[in-house]
Amino acid sequence: MKYVLMIYGNESKFDAMSSGQREELMSAYGAYGEALRKAGIMVGGDRLQRSSAATAVRVADGKTQVLDGPYADTKEQLGGFLVIDVPDLDAALAWAARCPGATHGTVEVRPIWPSADPCPMSYQPVAQSVG
Q1: Angstrom distance (rounded) from CA 55 to CA 65
Q2: Strands (E), the chain
Q3: pLDDT tens per residue across all 131 residues of the chain
Q4: How far apart are CA 104 and CA 49, in angstroms?
Q5: Cβ of 49: how many Cβ atoms within 10 Å?
């Protein structure tokens, strides 16, 4: 079953880290990513830009509203995500606990909706033609 691991952290605390502490954290993420790949469970994922780069869109009464900057004023911001394919929730939770983000913030684990017919917005790789 596929799960998304949403990694939340405090951007201000990250900013306050020394360069050595940041390097150590990034190295830990590198090792974690390698462990996911070696286990054959990594489907995808990426690091997100800062919440100040976010833009939210809402449609109310037929009018589009665009909100710049962080949508919500929270202590932790979504900093990245991973999609893993593991047998069950217990396995997903075990991998989430190993994530460096779990020691510096929160890792939310959420199952991806299973369906015989994929959601129309599900990612489907596009075949690249070799030219």
Answers
A1: 10
A2: 2-9, 42-47, 55-60, 63-68, 77-85, 105-111
A3: 999 999 999 999 999 999 999 999 999 999 999 999 999 999 999 999 998 899 989 999 999 999 887 666 678 899 999 999 999 999 999 999 999 999 989 999 999 988 766 666 666 665 565 55
A4: 17
A5: 8
Q: Which distant-in-sequence residues (6+ apart) come within 8 Å of 66 by Cβ?
A: 55, 56, 57
The structural domains of the chain, ordered by start, are 2-47+74-111 (3.30.70.1060)
* Alpha-carbon separation of residue 69 from 16, 27, 40, 46, 126 (angstroms): 21, 29, 36, 20, 32
For residues 65 and 57, what is the distance between their CA atoms, to the nearest angstrom?
6
| Burial classification of residue 117, based on how many CB atoms lie within 10 Å of its CB (0-12 exposed, 13-18 middle, 19 or more buried) | exposed
Contact partners, residue 32, CB within 8 Å, separation at least 6 = 98, 99, 100
What would the two tokens of residue 43 be? 């489907």
Cβ atoms of 9 and 99 closer than 8 Å: no
